[in-house]
Sequence to fold (481 residues):
Amino acid sequence: MTLIVASVHGKPPKTVTGADMIEIRADDVKLDEINNVVPSLLEATTLPTIFTIRSVQEGGNFSGDDAHWLAILHAALTSSKPPMYVDIEYELFAKQPWLIDELPLGECGVILSWHDTLSRPSDLFQKAALMQDIPGISIVKMAWRARSLRDNLDAFELLQGRQQPMIVLCMGPYGLMSRILAPKFGGFATFATIDGHEATADGQPTINELRSKYNFNSINAESKVYGVIGDNVELSASPQFHNAAFAAAGTNAVYVPLPIPNGWEHLKATALCLTHDERLDFAGASITIPHKENMLKLVQEDQGIIEQESKMIGAVNTISSSTKLIAINTDATAIATLLQSPKRILVLGGGGVARAAITAAISLRAEVVIVTRRSDQAMKLAKEFKCQHGIDACVNIDTVINCTPVGMATGEDASGDPLTTLVPTMRLLPEMTIFDTVYMPEETPLLKRAIEHGCNVITGSEMFRKQAATQQQFWATESAS
Fold:
């Protein structure tokens, strides 16, 4: 069982729901405060503790000398409630291995730790071997800043090849996957933030997120891995939805954010590593901005299977990965089922969602007008789908579908209104339907304005739930075949 360690600077709360252990970070204990402060830190919690003094060099706040460090640890180890483990940095040990011999460890175990807050070192595996060869160490901990999702695969390889209990984690936005999937690969523990407290490392999830959003205690070696691939997925609603759906269906699977920067090369390098890594049991993914069109190209290059509608759309939002990649698009069906007999639809945007919206509109025999920021993009789409484009064509519109990220809470223009920007001359009328595919927030600036004018509105949340439910059905069918 992989433990959840709640990490906190200074004194921890007496009660921490959901944690198995507390890491007390004593980086800031001053020399003249040691005898009073250190015992009070350890006595503040009823949970087993890890006592850590993290140096500035490894991402902490401690900049004292060896005597200061020894005095803090000595006070912790001789207190009335000593820690279960003390964390000792490998770089300090390598220079002065005798320091451990000066500690009154008793029954306390040693976590030998190493952190690189900047990047992944070239000698990662050699360092891991050296650290595991040191006698008298209870747990080896290694953590580094992930440069991409691919660094997580190195973390999993280290855990699978471990010779003793290990904690291996990646820091930063690309490292969340290593923290969530620690139980799958036998990690001794993962570190989490206590809700309402400052994180002690970049990229730590909260305890509540691990347990409630990711069903952390249900993850095991047999768990299949799914995720959402996109450029800005940290706050995506997909993990909450799909993990709840997996739990309700009794499916042994976990769904995680998979951030991949914009660009064909980033997507190709990372997505293929995930899908082809046998250890990971990668079974499928949702695809979001900006990778929907490039994912179709990637599946083609990897000799996968693409459903006919997705070929027509020219973009995919869902893949399954078993013996080969299979790609579909659940956006078009979701959009079509939400529209109410439209006659003339204005589609804002030219990406993967826009292509799905155009396809949905055509399936409903509606006329389509496309407007994008780039007139050449709109012209190309209009020619491909045999529809109209440009502001001059925006007459007798009864339905507007926003397929741009404008108005998205986590986007670059969270307060923007895409209709005002792209078609400033259009008036909203009560008989119009305004459909925003952005689902965060529930009421975007565009939808708020539409409600004020008495329009019928369709939210991105409605679309999200419909397309996500179809994704679940698709993955269930593929996993059973």
Q: What stands out?
A: The chain has 18 helices and 20 strands. The chain has a mean pLDDT of 96. The first helix runs from residue 34 to 43.
